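Agenda item 2: tetrahydrodeoxyuridine complex prediction
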Amino acid sequence: MNLTDEQRQQLIEAALTVRKWAYAPYSKYPVGAALLTASGKIYDGVNVENAAYPSGICAERVAVFKAVSEGEREFVAITVATHNGGSPCGACRQVLAEFGLDTLVLIVDGNGNIVQETTVRGLLPGAFTAEALEKSG
Ligand code: THU
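Presented output:
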């Protein structure tokens, strides 16, 4: 599904804006994510760190889990904003892959410039999905 220019701008704005709520006292690397669902809603998320480091979670997964816990499962696009245009981590790629390989991914820097535009498939070629489980046994 293609994004309109307006949707694209809204997603970028949302990811940039929500980044202020990132809880990143350890890495000092705030991340904002904004996820557009097929129903037209935008769910945002930030990274939430913890003194026990592995207990923290990335912005993208917060956005996905917020959406799924509100009954949403069809995702059109996700925007990820960091100051330097960092790319989604492997765990987030896997979580996104669960809900569709065609979800558009916009990676933006702190000024909202698009550093990379791709899809979940592009970020995670050969993804392990439910299909693999169906083939077992
Ligand atoms: N982080 C994200 O929120 N998303 C990513 O895809 C990459 C990393 C967070 C996790 C941690 O809070 C900080 O960035 C540094 O790794």
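Discussion summary: The chain has a mean pLDDT of 96.
Owner for follow-up: CH.
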